[in-house]
Amino acid sequence: MQLPPEVVAMSECCKCGAVAETYGLEEYLERVERRWPRRNGPSVRDIERGIAKRVLRDELADAGSIRVDGAVTALVEVLTGDQDGASAFEWEQARHDLRHHGVDPDTVIGNLPSYRTVHRHLTECCGQEAPAPTEITADRGVVAAEDRIKKLVTRLEHVTDKTLTELTTAGHIPEPGAVSVTVQAECGVCGEDHAVETVICGVCPTQTSTTPPTQPRQ
């Protein structure tokens, strides 16, 4: 649905308020507005993605999509942008996916508040002060890296599943089962392949046994 001009004009705040009124997100927005200034509250990016997720879910459901959750997860990552950014192909693929589900991409993308819009809403419309920056620890870096990889894996699973579905519909292949993607990396200690989550944590599985530690490879 397109944001009615009268709703945007009558909204007591910015585009975020208009979106909340149009999609019934007032309660969600009020909740994250209260939590944002807190030390462990959601980030501006978290709120941006939270709004996008709810808008896309509503649009896809209204269009009659029966695979809402998987489609929303992948679309949010592309349309709000992750730390690695989305390629031109991924962006066009997202627009194609929206059209495929019966949603006008220009309208729904135009309805999504940007990072700057969300930040302006929190600081100007709500009068909130940004939370004090916290020390970036090694643990937080590991969590962020693992989260980034998980998001990329989710996106790859969605694109793969969609491609296989299209091939099945066209009669080129039998209908496949569930799609899953596993990422492995070579451990710098033992030289064996392990799940990337294990490698990121910096703990070699072979060192948990009773055998003497393996010397790092030169």
SSE layout and pairings?
Elements: H1 5-10, H2 15-23, H3 26-35, H4 44-62, H5 68-80, H6 88-100, H7 105-111, H8 115-125, H9 138-169, E1 184-186, E2 193-195, H10 196-200
Antiparallel strand pairs: 1-2
Helix pairs in contact: 2-3, 4-5, 5-6, 5-9
Q: Total number of helical segments?
A: 10
Query: How many angstroms separate the termini?
Result: 59 Å
Radius of gyration: 21 Å
Oligomer: single chain
Give the strand order of the largest sheet, numbering strands 1, 2, ... along the chain.
1-2
* Overall morphology: flat
* Structural classification: mainly alpha
Pfam family, one: RdfA
Structure description:
It contains ten helices and two strands. The longest helix has 32 residues, at 138-169. It has 218 residues and is mainly alpha-helical. A hairpin with a 6-residue loop joins strand 1 and strand 2 (193-195). It has helices spanning 5-10, 15-23, 26-35, 44-62, 68-80, 88-100, 105-111, 115-125, 138-169, 196-200, and strands at residues 184-186, 193-195. It starts with a helix and ends in an 18-residue tail after the last helix. A two-stranded antiparallel ribbon has the order 1-2.
Can you describe this structure in just a few lines?
The protein is mainly alpha-helical and 218 residues long. 57% of the residues lie in helices and 3% in strands.
Sum up the structure in keywords:
mainly alpha; 2 strands; RdfA; 10 helices; 57% helix; 218 residues
